[in-house]
Amino acid sequence: MPAPTGHEVLAAVLQIRAGTLQVLLWQRGREPDRGRWALPGGRLGDTEDVEESVRRQLAEKVDVREVAHVEQLGVFSAPDRVPGARLVATSFLGLVPSDADPEIPEDTAWYPVDDLPATAFDHAEIVRDARDRLRAKLSYTNLGFALAPREFTISALRELYAAALGHPVSATNLQRVLTRRGVLAATGETAAPGPAGGRPAAVFRFTERALRVTDASAVLRPPGVREGERAEPAVGG
Amino acid sequence: MPAPTGHEVLAAVLQIRAGTLQVLLWQRGREPDRGRWALPGGRLGDTEDVEESVRRQLAEKVDVREVAHVEQLGVFSAPDRVPGARLVATSFLGLVPSDADPEIPEDTAWYPVDDLPATAFDHAEIVRDARDRLRAKLSYTNLGFALAPREFTISALRELYAAALGHPVSATNLQRVLTRRGVLAATGETAAPGPAGGRPAAVFRFTERALRVTDASAVLRPPGVREGERAEPAVGG
DNA sequence: CGGTGTTTTCGCCTGTTGGTCGAAAACAGG
DNA sequence: CCTGTTTTCGACCAACAGGCGAAAACACCG
Fold this sequence. Notes:
homodimer, alpha+beta, three-stranded antiparallel beta sheet, 27% strand, DNA-binding, NUDIX domain-containing protein (chains A, B), WH-like_DNA-bd_sf (chains A, B), WH_DNA-bd_sf (chains A, B), NUDIX_hydrolase_dom (chains A, B)
């Protein structure tokens, strides 16, 4: 008689910490893969779908209610991906704003996504997928809102994007692109300069805090159909 | 005692037929949802992952070995999505080139994705997801290869794209964009004109028949890093 | 064999967008 | 008040997609 197919959910929760893109992991206390680092998650419950399940498990096991965005990555289903039982996993990407510092249990820690410790099962692959998904979506959506504080300067946002993308980002270009796409807006206020002086930076925020695709460059779009002028000329205040 | 969580795979197989984007459905012969139209698929086997499973089920149940591309869409897991038992589904998008005409069983038929019959369970939602995924990826990948014959004229390709995208497409622009991205190449041959005459059309083919992301417009890319000049000036052989 | 109609191809122009650079603005500290 | 620092903003450039029309290459007909 075939072993019943179990289903679990796993979340790669990412956050920019200390200028680096990091992922939340916990250290397994028992076999299999005891001592190795795993993604938070758990069994799918009888009365929930996978989205509900992953949010429940996150809130329950590692106290992360500050996740600003959760999305499904995909299914991992190799028959031997977990020794012992057949277990199919639905993986998720979770994002936490950089100004949050959620309490996490003892056996839990943040690790840079590009410098993981010994990981359990196929979880390293899931982390890679999450990182790649984030990098891709930063380019054509407003997903930055889930990495940034509610309010920020362009310099701070530039650093966040550079850390997430893994390469330098021009502040000028970042501001212009995001503004033109209508996802960034100035609050009108300014931030106090640092100890070395300098012109006070304007404070910005994301206009929406829910995922939106913003890249109009969908090639081969219908003729003539320009999606309406969106960026009012940024009239300050 | 909780009902065990079963797992199934479902495929929305799409093809351009008669100038319309259609999906392969079969009519259920028993309850639940008897008489309604469902996607091909079935239970996940003990020794296969979901990708293997969906290919097996397609080949087995509806004789579609001509699918040029298969990719995972996502998980559908509402507790009540299928009456009776708890069943989690991994959905897939499958694509068949327009020149193929696979044999299909009696209870099976093609339907336009925008004019579905009464569908079973949540399968209509999966079809929508598949259609949307296809439309999105046609714009920034070479996915057209999976809809088109091995060789074709620009006019024929234009019709395929128009049918898939659901809006008119300019032949000039289509050719230029795909050529610049390096996914299209002329074979050097020409096709015979139609009964009304006209200049013989050049024959093209896709340079690769595997999925590749071709949109260099990843915003905020690393400074200076231009991805190499790829389009040789199209020196007609 | 030349004219007409048809289909395809190709070059040119235009508007938008992203990338880069440098000057100017606005501050702190001496 | 002068210098150093940080931010902001305008200007310029290259790449690219969309649109248009002329030219090319054929069939058919008289």
